[in-house]
Design a protein that fits this description.
single chain, mainly alpha, two-stranded antiparallel ribbon
């Protein structure tokens, strides 16, 4: 009888652990590496974590994308493709394309931005 009572509990714990392992929050963000990549690419010239500069703050970016399922993919594309952006004074220019060694660096940066 005791084994039967524990089975639903074990199943619930297992299901929760499995769900967590597939969630995007299970990805461990390396904040130090993200900040380093941002500094190397002069991202912080136009962006700040919490204050608006020429570009939006990273907190504002995270808020804008918080309910979008494809937020990370959109930001990776934005950082790596040089799309046009509208700056605080209203003019448009191409966003600087990030320089990186592998795509995991960009994905880490994007996850860090979205975590703000």
């Amino acid at each position: 009888m005791a084994n039967q009572a524990r089975n639903p509990i074990l199943l619930g714990l297992l299901a929760g652990a499995l769900a967590f392992s597939f969630s995007s929050s299970a990805f461990a963000v390396d904040a130090g590496a993200a900040k380093l990549l941002a500094r190397k690419n002069s991202c912080l010239r136009c962006h700040h974590v919490s204050k608006k500069k020429e570009g939006p703050s990273y907190q504002a970016v995270a808020y804008k994308y918080k309910d979008k399922a494809n937020a990370a993919d959109e930001l990776v594309k934005h950082i790596t493709s040089g799309l046009k952006v509208k700056l605080s004074d209203g003019h448009e220019e191409e966003h600087k394309v990030a320089k990186y060694k592998d795509m995991d660096q960009v994905k880490n940066l994007v996850e860090w931005i979205l975590a703000q």
